[in-house]
Amino acid sequence: MKRRAVAAESARQTGQVWDSLKKAAFVLGSGLFILVAFRNSVTWHLQRFWGASGDFWQTQWGKLHSLFGGHEVALFFLGTMLAPTIAFWSFNAMLMLADATGVPAFITRYRIQRDRNNPVEPAKLWQAVRTVLFNQFCLSAPMVMLMYPIMQWRGNPCGPELPTFHWALLEIAIFGLMEEIMFYYSHRLFHHPALYKHFHKVHHEWTAPIGVVALYAHPVEHVLSNMLPPMLGPILMGSHVATTTLWFCVALVITSISHCGYHLPFLPSPEFHDFHHLKFNQCYGVLGVLDRLHGTDTVFMKTKAYERHTLLLNLTPLSESIPDTPKQGE
């Protein structure tokens, strides 16, 4: 009897997983279909706004392509590794200054967990920086070099012609959807008790994250959850290195914003992922689509953090305009 009950429970859970996967495929597939259906009309207007700059960028790419001659490996590495690394550290340099010194106040007044990292411990910050540098140069760099022959097999990643504006826009939308799927499930897998204590616990040493912690992870997690999800889209699409470079830079800056600990004006809200670091078992994804489908945002949706999970369009911190509910006795 007990064996039957276990089998029934296992079948029920399997059914729930498949049901959730089908729902996710339906929602994401429908979104992609709508995007494809309307992309011509929408991007036509965007391309008019873009104006003649397409010719400008093609000219600049032609000059860079000629400068490198036939050394496309170097050109690929420049785009997929050097440019995103510069984008990551340029953005995080400003954040680390605020984390380490508490100035400028323009940034620190937007801190989400106001009693944490005020300022961050120097030894802890330096440990995070060392780990991130190791992950970037000892893991990310070899991975993008292994990516090059695969991209050559898929197409012509360093060809002389840039992709059209609307095609690059469509590709980046597809990259985002693919990253959401891969990151959500790989991230949730690393939260399994058998894996968490060996791998993902490293990343969660920071219950109040800072920007540079976006890449602070165990090497296994960095490869499977930080690198593969954003790499898969360009590989499957056989993308040009220009699109891949733009995508990698955008992905690194966005994940830095998600971890930065500050809900800054006119930038995407980091409340969702900050809550994940605080509570561990909520908000596993990037866009939040799969969290909604799987019900892994139900606790988050009942909090003040959810009310503050919006684009801040003025200079008043949301912690002031939507303050936490006072505790009893306060």
TrEMBL record:
Pfam families: FA_hydroxylase
Key word Nucleus present: no
TM region(s), chain numbering: 21-38, 86-107, 128-150, 165-185
KW Membrane (keyword) present: yes
Record key words, sorted: Membrane, Transmembrane, Transmembrane helix
Domain of life: Eukaryota
Subcellular localization: Membrane
Domain Fatty acid hydroxylase intervals: 173-296
Record-given protein name: Fatty acid hydroxylase domain-containing protein 2-like
Native organism: Huso huso (Beluga)
